[in-house]
Write a structure and sequence with these properties.
single chain; 167 residues; mainly beta; ten-stranded antiparallel beta sheet; globular; disordered N terminus
Length: 167
């Protein structure tokens, strides 16, 4: 999940949703926790597999649970990755995904929201009209319900089709 790519596969997400631990309603203010990362191969998104390597990674998250069960995660820090087309390893890009993001997820309603600034990797989940893997820069907001994208807003330059960029 470029960091936002490491999200739940069933939900079209841009990196940011990582539950490190839930804080009860009576708990003190949440503490920033490191988000673990490891190199990984991204499969089934492009016509080729992508190797994701963390060049510099120091992201942290706070996670709280609201009284209605909604999980709120705030992510901050540095996330710089290289993405390599494993069918043609001469095709590599470095992506700095260090923008902050806030996500919410309610397991009862299955509503997931993402509000991030900076650069994010974004799996579209096969939504018509969107390439399967975008790199977006600017203020990205989206909502998914039951794993289906219901709204998308990007205030920034046009998104980059990462599958095409690595082809």
């Amino acid at each position: 999940m470029l960091h936002r790519i490491r999200c739940l596969a069933a939900i079209p997400v841009a990196v940011g949703f990582v539950v490190v631990g839930l804080t009860g309603p009576a708990a003190a203010a949440p503490k920033w926790q490191p988000i673990p990362v490891s190199d990984t191969t991204i499969t089934g998104v492009c016509a080729f597999n992508i190797y994701q390597h963390a060049i510099h990674y120091d992201e942290r998250v706070t996670t709280t649970t609201q009284s209605d069960g909604t999980i709120v995660s705030n992510v901050r820090g540095v996330a710089i990755f290289s993405l390599t087309n494993l069918s043609d390893t001469s095709k590599t890009q470095v992506v700095n995904e260090s923008g902050p993001a806030t996500t919410t997820y309610n397991p009862l309603t299955t509503v997931y929201t993402f509000d991030g600034r900076g650069t994010s990797g974004f799996f579209t989940g096969g939504v018509a009209g969107f390439p399967p893997f975008l790199i977006v820069t600017g203020h990205l907001q989206y909502t998914a319900v039951g794993g289906n994208l219901t709204s998308y807003s990007l205030n920034g330059p046009p998104a980059v089709d990462e599958c095409a960029a690595l082809s």
